[in-house]
């Protein structure tokens, strides 16, 4: 009995002391959050300006980015904040789960900006901005005539003359050359800043956001590469033979010359194929760029998501600049949560075609994720995706759903009841989703791992890039590309979204799992022929994933929502009928890719 009384007294005492500790932690978190929101909103506003209005020779944006970036870094990296968060975490078990997550986030953010190396942080902020300005302020030229990236993309998509394709491809890579020194410098600055808080390198730091080590992430990514390889190998052989014929080449090359493919980095080959009766491009051509974005909003609204706020339309930068604008903007699509509250914006250069239709759906996925986790239950510090891949998956999932026949029929984008070739449709999708895996999980991820964790020497950047492209994607440059070029740096993310590209590979795997679940268990439809439009149950399913943001663990979210762990099986099942078809097409053709990677 006495023991019980002691136990009771102990419990009351520890409950009280828990409450005290929680109060102390909460007071720190409240104070931190307030300042964090103020400083991050100011930095986001400066970044927005620097990405939407790049004026040659004008350093106003740069100065503002540096000033606000430094203030944000000084606060988030302050030794005092780090110490307080660490001290509070020593009594982790007394705190609520939400508090622990926020404190860990504070320490994670700090590692990018530690006060102890504030000079390095300042140099990095400056270097990051200079790199972005160079990348997006670049003037692309073909035959000495200025062209936009949209124009280069159109040539790579449609042009049959190989000489013209080569010029467009080469023009698209020119930007990389001038970015090499900046990349070498940024690699060092990024590595050194996170090393001050005991991460081995910047790659390890970014991967740790998933709760994984570099080795664990590489194993996971490698597994996906291996699982997708048999399908990719068939697609690769198919593309070599089909394209050789299309371009009138008597000889079929063992590896695909990069300028043969309809994308600057060979990451999406879907434009190789048109599907009769499903050619949305011909319909979209007749619409306006505004219509494309509105149509995306309409899709989300039909699932029960709200309208986009008026400020989205007022403040976003959605369309290409007129040729005489006198300034440039970032030409790569993105979505922004400016103030971690209701100011959401997108930066795009939408034109009325199927690529931008898909990209617009993708960006709206980010925007609706922002809007959904901005709620009373999710503290601003945890207003992020369950993990970064989830953030990418939402909009890509809607992009996939927006290309399926029953949806297109319901929306009047194709004639109802039109006869279409299902295998050809599946082929077009595989040339997008399956082709992307060796690029994202192979070339990009391996290159960045070598860059940050392997200290890749600058005189091997281009050799390494093309070695990986050949190994994973089976592509080769049109002609030897020496180290005077830096083709990796022509890819946006290498410069301004460093060491995170595996996010996209994981997002594709995740989205097929979610899609499979939605099709089979909610819609009771064939995953290859769904119509999400107007289905509130689908909307609720997505909202439930989005609502908690990062306040729930990502692996439990997937398990809870789909009943399974991360797995490529739904993606492989989806394309299963295509493998047989490809094997028949490829009979007698020479495979050049190894069976496994
Ligand atoms: O960068 C993007 C989005 C913005 S988050 C347009 N994506 C990757 C890319 O373009 O390389 C979407 C899929 C892959
Ligand atoms: Zn995205």
Automatic annotation (TrEMBL):
It holds the Pfam family Peptidase_M2. It comes from the Bacteria. This is M2 family metallopeptidase. Keywords: Disulfide bond, Glycoprotein, Signal. InterPro entries: Peptidase_M2. The keyword Manganese does not apply. It comes from Paradesertivirga mongoliensis.
């Amino acid at each position: 009995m006495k023991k019980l009384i002691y136990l009771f007294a102990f419990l009351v005492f520890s409950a009280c002391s828990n409450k005290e500790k929680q109060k102390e932690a909460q007071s720190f978190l409240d104070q931190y959050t307030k300042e964090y929101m103020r400083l991050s909103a100011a930095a986001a506003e400066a970044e927005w300006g620097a990405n939407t209005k790049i004026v040659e020779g004008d350093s106003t944006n740069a100065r503002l980015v540096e000033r606000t970036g430094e203030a944000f870094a000084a606060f988030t990296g302050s030794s005092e904040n780090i110490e307080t968060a660490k001290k509070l975490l020593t009594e982790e078990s007394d705190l609520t789960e939400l508090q622990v997550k926020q404190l860990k986030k504070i320490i994670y953010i700090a590692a990018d900006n530690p006060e102890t190396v504030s000079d390095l942080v300042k140099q990095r902020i400056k270097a990051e901005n200079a790199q972005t300005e160079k990348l997006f302020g670049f003037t692309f030229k073909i035959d000495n005539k200025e062209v936009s990236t949209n124009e280069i993309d159109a040539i790579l998509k449609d042009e049959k003359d190989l000489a013209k394709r080569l010029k467009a491809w080469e023009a698209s890579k020119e930007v990389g050359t001038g970015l090499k020194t900046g990349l070498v410098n940024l690699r060092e600055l990024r590595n050194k800043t996170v090393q001050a808080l005991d991460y081995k390198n910047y790659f390890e730091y970014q991967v740790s956001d998933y709760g994984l080590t570099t080795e664990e992430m590489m194993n996971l990514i490698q597994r996906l590469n291996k699982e997708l390889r048999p399908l990719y190998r068939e697609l690769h052989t198919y593309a070599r033979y089909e394209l050789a014929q299309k371009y009138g080449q008597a000889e079929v090359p063992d590896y695909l010359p990069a300028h043969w493919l309809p994308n600057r980095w060979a990451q999406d080959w879907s434009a190789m194929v048109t599907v009769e009766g499903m050619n949305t491009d011909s319909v979209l051509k007749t619409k306006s760029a505004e219509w494309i974005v509105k149509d995306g909003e309409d899709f989300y609204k039909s699932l029960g998501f709200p309208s986009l706020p008026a400020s989205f339309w007022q403040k976003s930068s959605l369309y290409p600049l007129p040729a005489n604008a006198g300034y440039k903007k970032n030409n790569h699509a993105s979505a922004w949560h400016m103030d971690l509250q209701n100011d959401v914006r997108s930066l795009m250069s939408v034109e009325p075609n199927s690529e931008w239709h898909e990209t617009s759906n993708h960006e709206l996925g980010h925007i609706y994720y922002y809007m959904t986790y901005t709620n009373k239950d999710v503290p601003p510090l945890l207003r992020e995706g369950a993990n970064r891949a989830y953030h990418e998956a939402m909009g890509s999932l809607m992009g996939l759903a927006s290309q399926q026949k029953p949806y297109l029929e319901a929306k009047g984008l194709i004639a109802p009841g039109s006869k279409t070739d299902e295998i050809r449709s599946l082929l077009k999708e595989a040339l997008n989703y399956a082709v992307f895996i060796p690029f994202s999980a192979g070339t990009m991820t391996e290159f960045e791992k070598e860059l940050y964790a392997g200290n890749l020497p600058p005189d091997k950047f281009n050799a390494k890039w093309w070695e990986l492209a050949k190994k994973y994607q089976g592509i080769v440059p049109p002609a030897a590309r020496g180290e005077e070029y830096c083709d990796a740096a022509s890819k946006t993310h290498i410069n301004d979204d460093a060491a995170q590209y595996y996010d996209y590979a994981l997002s594709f795997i995740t989205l097929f799992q979610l899609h499979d679940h939605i099709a089979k268990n909610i819609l009771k439809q064939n995953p290859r022929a769904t119509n999400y439009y107007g289905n509130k149950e689908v909307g609720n399913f997505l909202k439930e994933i989005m609502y908690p943001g990062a306040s729930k663990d990502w692996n439990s979210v997937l398990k809870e929502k789909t009943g399974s762990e991360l797995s490529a099986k739904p993606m492989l099942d989806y394309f299963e009928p295509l493998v047989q078809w490809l094997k028949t097409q490829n009979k007698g053709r020479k495979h050049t890719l190894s069976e496994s990677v």
